[in-house]
């Protein structure tokens, strides 16, 4: 959960995005707000769970989760007072992530039982991947996750870049400086929607080979589920030119997936290259492309999440000027 003190320039955009995506290493927009809850009751419950969030951050989180619930929050009250509550967000591609859990002092076992009940429901619904993403300062949730069976996988960094004042340096290799014009017959950018879905699924899966970006998660879902997760319930046509494929001599060799959020904020959802073209400086090309597209769309801020063990990606982002906003722990529930 993001502290109000963890602020920086463009703090409102970055902190609200971080609050909205807390608990998320994937993507998605499925599920509907149903049941006997009123909006105010739901908001009160979530506010109790996320009591430490600043108002702007909580507002961003509430807008996001209200149509992502796997089930509405489970709540236990005693003598009219809430003592434990928890909920999961349903993401695309068969992923559910812990939205939040909280227990009043002395009622940790109650919260644990709530999570166990919700996990059983998700198992019955064939959810492929159950995860949690926590800020390091959330010491109260960690023992509950361990007791339920979650295992810590890695840490990721949320990073941000002020693209409104970013001036990209030229690539050292002039052949890669601008793939739109250089060697036009050999390298080209093509909108992803111009390809059939199976080709994009195969490309993304190929970019996972020997990746350092959360490699333990690679075989948990099918290539179809991975693509559905990135699509967030949208079609290729709806995404438009925010998704692009790098083509070399007729072969699909890389991808750049972006998503525009609230005004002036772009997310670098994923970039990847197949093994055969790595080590040629193309990572710089993809990041520069993301920055340029963000600028052309009128965005001020570009955000990305990266595994802290993925040192090539960290070096790449820092060379461009990305700054760390927060460090998050990734937890996974074994099947």
Structural write-up:
It is built from ten helices and eleven strands. It has helices at residues 11-21, 39-49, 55-65, 108-124, 141-148, 197-207, 223-231, 236-239, 282-296, 311-320; strands at residues 74-78, 81-91, 95-103, 129-135, 151-162, 187-191, 243-248, 251-260, 265-273, 301-307, 323-332. It has an eleven-stranded mixed beta sheet, sandwiched between helices. Strand 3 (95-103), helix 4 and strand 4 form a beta-alpha-beta unit. Helix 1 (11-21) crosses helix 3, helix 4 crosses helix 5 and helix 9 crosses helix 10 (311-320). The radius of gyration is 20 Å and the shape is globular.
Strand and helix order: HHHEEEHEHEEHHHEEEHEHE
In what range is the share of β-strand residues? 25-35%
Kindly name the structural category.
Answer: alpha+beta
Q: Give the proportion of residues in helices.
A: 25-40%
Low-confidence parts, pLDDT < 50 over ≥5 residues? Answer: 1-35, 170-177, 180-185
Cα-to-Cα separation, first versus last residue: 26 Å
Radius of gyration: 20 Å
**Main beta-sheet annotation:** 11 strands, mixed
Strand numbers in spatial order across the main sheet:
1-2-3-4-11-5-10-9-8-7-6
| Number of H- or I-type helical stretches | 10
- In round numbers, the mean pLDDT is 81
Beta-strand segment tally = 11
The backbone outline, from C-alpha atoms, is: globular
């Amino acid at each position: 959960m993001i502290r109000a003190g963890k602020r920086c320039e463009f703090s409102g955009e970055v902190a609200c995005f971080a609050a909205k995506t807390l608990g998320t290493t994937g993507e998605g927009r499925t599920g509907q707000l149903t049941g006997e809850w009123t909006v105010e009751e739901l908001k009160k419950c979530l506010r109790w769970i996320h009591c430490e969030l600043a108002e702007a951050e909580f507002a961003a989180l509430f807008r996001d989760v209200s149509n992502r619930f796997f089930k509405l929050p489970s709540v236990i009250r005693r003598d009219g007072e809430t003592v434990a509550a928890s909920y999961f967000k349903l993401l695309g591609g068969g992923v559910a992530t812990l939205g939040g859990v909280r227990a009043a002092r002395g009622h940790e076992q109650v919260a644990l039982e709530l999570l166990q009940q919700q996990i059983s429901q998700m198992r019955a619904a064939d959810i492929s991947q159950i995860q949690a993403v926590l800020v390091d300062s959330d010491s109260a949730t960690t023992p509950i996750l361990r007791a339920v069976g979650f295992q810590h996988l890695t840490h990721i960094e949320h990073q941000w870049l002020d693209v409104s004042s970013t001036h990209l340096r030229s690539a050292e290799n002039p052949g890669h400086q601008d793939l739109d014009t250089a060697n036009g017959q050999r390298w080209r950018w093509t909108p992803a929607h111009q390809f059939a879905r199976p080709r994009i699924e195969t490309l993304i899966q190929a970019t996972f080979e020997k990746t350092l970006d959360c490699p333990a998660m690679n075989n948990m879902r099918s290539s179809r589920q991975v693509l559905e997760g990135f699509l967030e319930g949208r079609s290729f046509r709806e995404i438009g030119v925010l998704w692009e494929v790098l083509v070399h001599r007729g072969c699909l060799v890389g991808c750049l997936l972006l998503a525009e959020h609230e005004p002036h904020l772009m997310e670098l959802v994923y970039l990847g290259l197949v093994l055969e073209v790595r080590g040629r400086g193309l990572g710089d090309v993809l990041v520069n492309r993301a920055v340029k597209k963000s600028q052309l769309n009128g965005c001020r801020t570009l955000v990305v999440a990266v595994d802290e063990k993925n040192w090539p990606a960290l070096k790449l982002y820092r060379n461009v000027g990305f700054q760390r906003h927060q460090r998050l722990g990734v937890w996974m529930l074994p099947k």
